[in-house]
Design goal:
This protein has 98 residues and is mainly α. It has three helices and no strands. Helix 2 packs antiparallel against helix 3.
Amino acid sequence: MSGKKTSADPGRLKEEIAETRDELAGTVEALAAKTDVKARAKDAAADVKERAKDAAADVKDAAVVAAEQVRRPVPAVALAAGIGLVALAIIAVRRRRS
């Protein structure tokens, strides 16, 4: 099957069988992971959640910096809202790509 030349030695044959079993077990595990749609969806949701948390933290940090730089509160709030909208747009674009 794998194109390898087999040996007539019983000990070597047992080793080759064990190696083939290990390779097959790895293949079966990989295929099982690909067919587990629920787990894959859960992982994807966790990734999106983590990216959203990171984006929210970035927006918060930017808002704090903007608030420190601007003395009037209205422009700082508007700037923070704008940054938030940009972050949400980035998240939306990334979701569409994946």
